[in-house]
Amino acid sequence: MVNTTYQVQGMTCGHCVSAVSAEVGALPGVHDVQVDLATGRVTVSSDQPLDVASVRAAVDEAGYDLVDGSSGGPA
Known about the structure:
Domain HMA: 2-67
Protein name: Heavy-metal-associated domain-containing protein
Keywords: Copper, Metal-binding
Strand content: 25-35%
Structural class: alpha+beta
Pfam families: HMA
Number of strands: 4
Largest sheet: 4 strands, antiparallel
Helix content: 25-40%
C-alpha cells in the first residue's frame, strides 16, 4: 500500500471534500482518500503510486485545482 499526499486548492466546504474524495477514489487502485479541508491536503492510499496526470484530471473533474508542483509524495 502506498500513501501519497497532494495539495488541492479551492475547497471551502464539506461538499468540496465529498466531490474530491469521490473523483479521486474512483481512480483504479485507490483504496482510501482522506481530505483535510483546512489545509487542502488530500492523502490517497493506493496499490501503487498514481500517475499525477490522473490525479490532476480527477481533481479537475471535481471542480478544483491540484496545486502546481504537487507531484505527490509519501504521506
